[in-house]
């Protein structure tokens, strides 16, 4: 007889059936419905386990799991490396208790107590002792877990030794800095007291400097005025001497004394060039030269230069040829003319035989004005030196005066002021080429005149010239020179004498040559206007002046009066008179 407590066969069958149904292994139909779902869940669990294992093994932070007795249950390679072990297995085998890993046992106790009380710990700083007994500083994040009825904790460990060392070093530096600041504060306090005294002394010195500066500025102003007045007074007798020597040269070309006259002429030219260059350098230093850009015909500029240098070229047995051009450029005609004048003058000075050619090359929107010569040339290693002040090549000159070494220095400064590039090419013993590049004008210059044919040598024969100047030596010199050219000459010291001549002798001069600075605050421009009013016609006139200022040049240009600077160059005067007549 079966016991009451023993299950019957039917009870066993029902229990078996209920368990199989519970896990999805009941009837064939039930197994068919839940088997695939169970396999999928198992696969997901396996994938998640493998992912967690991969993250655990490859994490950059150290990770370990331990119980509260200090037994390490698991550790990743990063934690093993932090503690100085070769791998995770060595941590489990050699680390008897996590307590021994902490350099200070109280740190481990504080960690575990806080975990039990709060369940988690973040950024817990501790000092660990590696297996080689070196100390490191770490930061831990730990969390409390319950597994299999016991408490364990997991921790993430980051080695912050470098940060801790930097922090300690910063604290040390701060302490040093505080000490230095205190010491420096004491020094600064003493220095401030000394500085107050120095400031008072400096203010006194600055006041003295201000007074001295005002005195220096006043002295400079007086010097400029004196230089202007002295240059005018010096140029007056030099101008008279040049005119007289020019007349003598023409009269005594075949005489035995012509050599002496020629030497006097060369000496005066050298003195004139030195004086003019020194005055111009002084103006450049004082920023007294300001460019005035305008559109003008390049032919008008070079025609005047050709007439100015033709006589000199012939006297040296050279050919001066200026190519014609109908192009217009935008520049300052006066400053550009000085640049080209220097190029042509140097070419004639350093050329023994052959010719000097002035030509052009178009370069995009610019025009390169080039002066070629067949002279001695310049060594390549000296090309830059020739643009320095008072730098001059030592050359044997065949009776031609030497320069003073300021011309090309002035050219360089004017070219930079105008933003006109300078180009130099030279072939020793074959010749040189100096060029300046000028912007082309978009339209032709208004009033550009056609190229005029050269006038015959006797074109001044019988011309009536009225000369106004307050210097008797200038009047005598001009009379001698002009009469030698075949002119009929009348002389006057001021506009009143000129008007009296006009009324008494019914004088109608062909050209008036007037000095700008006359006596009693009269000016040559006033005299010209008075003579024109008296004559009732626009008599051609030329202003001759030692005033090199931009204001004077602009005034003469506004009045439509051509200007010649003192000392007067006879060849330039003759060319201008021929042009006006």
Q: How would you characterize the overall build of this protein?
A:
By secondary structure, the chain is of the alpha/beta class. It is built from 15 helices and 17 strands. A five-stranded antiparallel β-sheet has the order 2-1-5-4-3.
Beta-strand fraction estimate: 15-25%
CATH structural class of the domain at 289-454: Alpha Beta
Kindly state the number of beta strands. Answer: 17
Radius of gyration: 53 Å
Mean pLDDT value: 79
At CATH's second level, what is the architecture of the domain at 289-454?
Answer: 2-Layer Sandwich
Helix content: 40-55%
CATH homologous superfamily caption of the domain at 289-454? Histidine kinase-like ATPase, C-terminal domain
Q: Let me know the largest β-sheet.
A: 5 strands, antiparallel
Question: How many helical elements?
Answer: 15
Structural class: alpha/beta
Provide the spatial order of strands within the biggest beta sheet.
2-1-5-4-3
Q: Extract low-pLDDT stretches.
A: 1-7, 12-25, 395-400, 448-457
- The name CATH uses for the topology of the domain at 289-454 is Heat Shock Protein 90
Distance between the termini: 168 Å
């Amino acid at each position: 007889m079966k016991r009451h407590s023993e299950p019957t066969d039917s009870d066993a069958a029902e229990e078996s059936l209920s368990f199989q149904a519970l896990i999805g292994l009941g009837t064939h139909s039930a197994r068919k419905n839940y088997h695939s779902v169970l396999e999928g869940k198992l696969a997901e669990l396996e994938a998640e386990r493998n992912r967690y294992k991969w993250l655990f093994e490859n994490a950059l932070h150290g990770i370990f799991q331990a119980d509260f007795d200090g037994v390490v249950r698991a550790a990743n390679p990063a934690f093993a490396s932090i503690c100085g072990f070769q791998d995770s297995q060595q941590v489990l085998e050699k680390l008897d208790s996590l307590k021994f890993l902490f350099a200070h046992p109280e740190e481990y106790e504080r960690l575990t107590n806080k975990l039990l009380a709060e369940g988690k710990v973040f950024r817990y700083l501790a000092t660990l002792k590696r297996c080689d007994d070196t100390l490191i500083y770490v930061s831990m994040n730990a969390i409390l877990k319950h597994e299999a009825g016991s408490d364990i904790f997991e921790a993430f460990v980051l080695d912050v030794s470098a940060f801790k060392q930097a922090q300690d070093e910063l604290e040390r530096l701060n302490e040093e800095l505080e000490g230095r600041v205190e010491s420096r504060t004491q020094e600064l306090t003493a220095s401030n007291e000394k500085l107050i005294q120095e400031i008072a002394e400096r203010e006194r010195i600055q006041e003295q400097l201000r007074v001295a500066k005002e005195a220096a500025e006043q002295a400079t102003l007086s010097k400029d005025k004196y230089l202007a007045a002295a240059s005018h007074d010096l140029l007056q007798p030099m101008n008279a001497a040049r005119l007289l020597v020019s007349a003598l040269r023409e009269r005594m070309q075949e005489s035995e004394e012509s050599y002496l006259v020629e030497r006097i002429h060369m000496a005066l030219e050298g003195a004139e060039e030195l004086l003019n260059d020194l005055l111009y350098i002084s103006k450049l230093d004082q920023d007294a030269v300001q460019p005035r850009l305008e559109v003008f015909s390049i032919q008008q500029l070079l025609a005047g230069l050709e007439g100015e240098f033709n006589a000199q070229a012939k006297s040296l047995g050279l050919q001066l040829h200026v190519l014609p051009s109908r192009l217009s450029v935008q520049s300052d005609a006066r400053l550009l003319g000085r640049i080209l004048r220097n190029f042509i003058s140097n070419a004639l000075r350093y050329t023994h035989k052959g010719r000097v050619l002035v030509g052009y090359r178009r370069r995009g929107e610019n025009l390169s004005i080039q002066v070629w010569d067949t002279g001695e040339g310049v060594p390549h290693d000296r090309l830059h030196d020739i643009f320095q002040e008072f730098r001059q090549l030592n050359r044997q000159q065949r009776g031609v005066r030497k320069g003073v070494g300021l011309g090309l220095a002035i050219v360089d400064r004017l070219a930079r002021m105008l933003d006109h590039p300078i180009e130099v090419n030279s072939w020793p013993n074959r010749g040189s080429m100096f060029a300046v590049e000028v912007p082309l004008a978009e339209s032709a210059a208004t009033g550009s005149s056609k190229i005029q044919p050269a006038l015959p040598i006797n074109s001044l024969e019988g011309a009536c010239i009225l000369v106004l100047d307050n210097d008797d030596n200038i009047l005598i010199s001009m009379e001698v020179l002009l009469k030698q050219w075949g002119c009929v000459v009348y002389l006057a010291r001021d506009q009143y004498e000129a008007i009296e001549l006009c009324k008494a002798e019914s004088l109608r001069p062909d050209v008036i040559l007037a000095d700008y600075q006359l006596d009693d605050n009269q000016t040559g421009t006033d005299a010209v206007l008075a003579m024109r009013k008296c004559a009732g016609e626009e008599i051609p006139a030329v202003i001759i002046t030692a005033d090199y200022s931009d204001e004077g040049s602009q005034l003469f240009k506004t009045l439509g009066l051509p200007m010649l600077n003192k000392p007067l160059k006879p060849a330039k005067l003759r060319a201008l008179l021929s042009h006006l007549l």
